[in-house]
């Protein structure tokens, strides 16, 4: 999730989920003063992400599953750059932040829930629909929690460089793991509605959980491996072009495998902070 916002100003402070809020707030504009071009651009990208996510539903209705997934993945890519462009152009606004949250709820909550229901869960009466509802609701709850805490100074996960739970775009990407495997392998087991329902419910829980998860902005590889990291990123991009579904499946599994590492790392940070806070009292 990449909610955008301002520093201090008439629209209130706002920041992306994986960044520390900036305090240089003269970027807000009066409602009656119109929008400059630099203010329109990031919001237009957000609108494009929304349209892309909802277009995925159209492709799902006609059974074009690959184009459906590509549309929602494109929405995730656009969602990843709109906030950064807004900060680069100094065009953050409360309007953009709220638009981004609404777009995320539709593109990464409602759209995946409907797509997964049309693809598999409709074959499981009652429980399949409840699983889809759970995913959409948990995505909305996650975004609401983020908006409610955006002005809160005491956020232990964020101050330590972690996120709380799985971000909405990543949650949608992880929920599609059975689809990636089904398209890549053609095995009907991955379309089994019971398996898919359990998986979707689990991903819904991870989005609203209080687990510490990795933030990409806090990952800083050592100098000795930076060239290797660049080469690895190029190879991943090439793999996405040649074998997109297997590559997405592998990336999803790797992210899930890194979650225990994030929890363990945050626990170490908490213990270090507790020991540092206890030192003055002992003196």
Automatic annotation (TrEMBL):
Domain CDP-alcohol phosphatidyltransferase C-terminal span(s) in chain numbering: 226-260
Protein name: CDP-diacylglycerol O-phosphatidyltransferase
Region (Disordered): 1-24
One example of a Gene Ontology biological process annotation: phospholipid biosynthetic process
Recorded topology in the membrane: Multi-pass membrane protein
MF GO annotations: phosphotransferase activity, for other substituted phosphate groups
Membrane-crossing segments per the record: 40-63, 69-89, 101-121, 127-148, 160-182, 194-213, 248-267
Thylakoid as UniProt keyword: no
Subcellular location: Membrane
Keywords: Lipid biosynthesis, Lipid metabolism, Membrane, Phospholipid biosynthesis, Phospholipid metabolism, Transferase, Transmembrane, Transmembrane helix
Predominant localisation class: membrane
GO annotations of cellular component type: membrane
Organism of provenance: Altericroceibacterium indicum
């Amino acid at each position: 999730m990449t909610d955008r916002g301002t520093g201090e100003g008439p629209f209130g402070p706002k920041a992306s989920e994986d960044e520390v809020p900036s305090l240089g707030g003269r970027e807000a504009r009066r409602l009656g003063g119109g929008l400059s071009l630099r203010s329109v651009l990031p919001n237009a990208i957000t609108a494009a992400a929304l349209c892309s996510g909802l277009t995925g539903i159209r492709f799902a209705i006609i059974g074009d599953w690959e184009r459906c997934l590509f549309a929602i993945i494109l929405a995730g890519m656009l969602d990843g750059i709109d906030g950064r462009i807004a900060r680069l152009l100094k065009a953050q606004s409360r309007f953009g932040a709220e638009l981004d949250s609404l777009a995320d709820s539709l593109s990464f909550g409602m759209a995946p829930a409907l797509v997964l229901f049309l693809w598999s869960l409709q074959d499981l009466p009652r429980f399949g629909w409840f699983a889809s509802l759970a995913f959409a609701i948990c995505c909305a709850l996650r975004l609401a929690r983020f908006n409610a805490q955006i002005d809160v100074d005491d956020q232990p996960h964020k101050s330590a460089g972690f996120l709380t739970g799985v971000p909405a775009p990543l949650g949608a990407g992880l929920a599609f793991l059975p689809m990636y495997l089904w398209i890549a392998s053609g095995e009907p087991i991955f379309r089994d509605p019971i398996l898919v329902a359990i998986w979707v419910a689990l991903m819904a829980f991870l989005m609203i959980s209080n687990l510490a998860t990795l933030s990409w902005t806090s990952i800083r590889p050592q100098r000795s491996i930076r060239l290797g990291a660049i080469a690895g990123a190029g190879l991943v991009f090439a793999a996405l072009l040649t074998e997109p579904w297997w590559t997405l499946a592998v990336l999803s599994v790797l992210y899930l495998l890194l979650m225990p590492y994030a929890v363990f790392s945050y626990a170490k940070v908490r213990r270090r902070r507790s020991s540092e806070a206890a030192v003055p009292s002992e003196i």
